Amino acid sequence: MLRSSWNLRFIDEGVEDFIPIASKPIPRSIKCGSFIINSKQCKGANTRMVPDSVWKESASSMNLNKKVFIGFLMFIIIPLFVLGSAVYTVSQQLIEKKYGDLTEVTLQAISRNIYYMFKEANYFSDFWMVKESIQGIYRTIDEVKPSENTLSSYDLNTFDTLLRGSILTYSPIQSVAIYNNAGKSFSAGRGGGSALPWTALTQSTAFQHIQELNGSPLWIGPSEYKEFGTGRGEFYQARLVKDFWTMDNLGFMLLKFKFNELDQIFKSFNTNEESSKRYLLINKSGLIFYDNKQNLEGANVLQLLPGKLDLQLNNNSFQANFQNEKSLISLYHLNINQMGVQDWSVVSITSWKYVAGEIETIMKLVAGITFVCLFFALVYNLVFVRRIVQLILRMLSSMKKVERGDLTTRMEESGKDETSALARGFNSLVVRVEDLLEEVKRQQDRKNKAELMLLQAQIKPHFLFNTLESINVLAIQNQGKKVSQMVYRLGNLLRIGMENREEISLKQELEHLKSYLEIQEFRFEDQFQYDIQAPPELLDYCILKLTLQPLVENSLQHGFEPIDYMGMISIKVVDEGERIALYVTDNGIGISAEKLAKFHYKTELETPFHEILGANEERRGLGVSNVADRIRIQYGAHYGMFICSQEGHGTTMKIVIPKNKGEGL
């Protein structure tokens, strides 16, 4: 009977093998079961064992050494630095405020003294300005005929004597100049020099202001107006003079003062601070017309403190660099405009070294001590804490090695403190674990050998019973020649099965399988065919004896018994790099999905495969389960067996073993 051919595709992680089978067609959607022993779900013999105890570390995790150092920075260094900075800043602000308040009190006292100085000068000029003798001079000058232009010698002498006996009796006044409305003038003074010409006076920017004050005095500081003098300490008082009786304008009076009293005023508040404190008298544009140290007169304070000093603000104090030295700057407005002093201010400049004084020294000392303490804390962290951390890290590294199975790992024992005791304890523990594992390994080896012998003992009666049953049938049928051949082949089988070696060459295993198949051909005559394909270069590699025969026996006993077509068994050996794959394929009745599901992904190493079968299936699956368990015991979790089957279409079993050659084969 002819059957259509079909292909069974076995996919193993990207490798496709097509095994031709002469039988009824099979669909591509075939369900597979496997019982490779592994701690994870497996999908092929290429699956590698991944122990649950593998040490996993995140790539972004921070080691203990860094954590300790960052903790030292965050909880010791940075808080101390922030605290020190805050204390230093607050102390600076507190010193600035306290000394600023003290300086403001001083400047108030200076302002009062300056007020009294100008008040006295105004009082003296007011007193003589209304006297008949002074006003008579203006009338006399007015009576001079235009053609004469000058006063007579008599008048000049008279006026000079009169001024010296009145206005010039006030010591700060250095000279006096009288101008009538027509520009005629007369002047007198303590020293030489001529009076300011009438033309220069009228063209001065101060002249309009003098007229607006309408008799009140206007004080002009040194260099404040370019038309007036620039001598140190020379102040000018300019005013409009009115007739005492009619209040008509008689003319103008210009008085030049030299206030030596200013030096005394500022000196009284600067007794022991000549090198640390400076006082400046300035106008509203920042012009310095008095400096107690004399070297800044004529300069502009706004240029010396660019962007720092605002004359529009109220009295205030602030820190700034003045002439490359950190200083405390205090501004105080005189507010004596009623005296004719227009928007003048006093600026106090005090060296910060003097302001902070001993406090600054103490702060620096405390800062130095703090940094020294931090340095020793850092040394302590690097020397002692780091040593402990390094011990922990070394122990962690050693534990990882032990976790990976390196029981030769030992920690260095140094010193006589608790760290060395900890290292000795770790080493002692590893030695103890190594001894225990060796003992467990020896016991496991004995257990595996005993289990392997038991499995082999299970296989021998199993196929011996089937073979003897076949010989018995032939003997009943009086087929002596076939009985002889079967006995001969049975002898070959028993010879290999009774060898003391657990592993034989693949060539011997295939010969053993061929003898078995030839015996079975007598029993299932004209009911099945077989095909063995094996590359010659793989025949010298070793395999557990009696590996293929139970699988073929399972196909014959359970796959072909109820079929009504020619059975086909294909045995194929495939080179898969570091492994060898053996495929046993039949076109029998297959395995139902329900039974196949019981084989799917066995996960417990300690559970024999046949225990997952029910009582009714245990006998039928005994040979297959023994092969699976033997491979598991002999080669480990990386190797095993797959079953792919579909009910009514056939079964493929794949065995994966390592590629190695045994000694003496």
UniProtKB/TrEMBL annotation:
EC number assigned by the record: 2.7.13.3
Species: Paenibacillus phytorum
Keyword Iron: no
Record protein name field: histidine kinase
Pfam families recorded: dCache_1, HAMP, HATPase_c, His_kinase
Annotated membrane topology: Multi-pass membrane protein
Domain HAMP: from-to ranges: 386-438
InterPro entries (UniProt xref): Bact_2-comp_sensor_kinase (IPR050640), dCache_1 (IPR033479), HAMP_dom (IPR003660), HATPase_C_sf (IPR036890), HATPase_dom (IPR003594), Sig_transdc_His_kin-like_C (IPR004358), Sig_transdc_His_kin_internal (IPR010559)
UniProt-annotated location(s): Cell membrane
Keyword Ribonucleoprotein: no
Coiled-coil stretches: 426-460
Lineage: Bacteria, Bacillati, Bacillota, Bacilli, Bacillales
Transmembrane residue ranges: 68-88, 365-385
UniProt catalytic activity: ATP + protein L-histidine = ADP + protein N-phospho-L-histidine
Taxonomy, superkingdom: Bacteria
Keywords in alphabetical order: Cell membrane, Coiled coil, Kinase, Membrane, Phosphoprotein, Transferase, Transmembrane, Transmembrane helix, Two-component regulatory system
